[in-house]
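Subject: Sanity check before I submit

Could someone independently write out the structure tokens for this chain? I want to compare against mine line by line before I put it in a report. The sequence has 206 residues.
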Amino acid sequence: MLGRMALRDRLPSLTFWKRASPLADDDLPAAGALSVLMVCTGNICRSPTAQGVLRAKLRREGLHRSVWVDSAGTHGYHTEEPPDARAIRHAAARGYDISGLKARPVVTRDFARFHWMLAMDESNLAWLQRKTPSPGAPRIELLTSAGGLAEPEVPDPYYGPDAGFEHVLDLVERACDGFVQRLLPELSARAGEPALATDELDPARR
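---
Independent answer below. Compare away.
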């Protein structure tokens, strides 16, 4: 119990994961976990959807403690708001619960916290590339390319019909499947590395 409480303190009250309720022990990241940040503009449609989908796919593969997933927006238009009701509804219809997430903007410390930043579109990608203090760390890519898709980006469904949210889910599911496969060799390689101490899970130390 003390170890769990200490870890919560090290991860800024776990706003890093943005859950509505405390994390269960099985949801806490393992020592040396990789970390992935999904990024869109306002963090209420595409990136929380991608966060929920990737997290679910990792859990199905038994990798949810090996890869830590979060999401954020390039702009703080909706800070502390839940995802768009349409995003929640369409995700839930496919078995993904993103209702407990809350929007936040990308902050400078995120560039040290995360191994990967996956942008939903070209404008998000360009923004991240401009803001990164050290090119090459973290790895900044489009989610679609990171997942091996030919599609150039995940389009913003906010101003369109509900069908746009279904299209987002279609793309995100395929991209996350590809990204998980891409991560497997890296996770296998890291499994042979010495385990990190618990306090090294603090993203600010990365």
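---
OP: Matches mine. For the report I'm noting this point. Strands lie at 34-40, 67-73, 116-119, 139-142.
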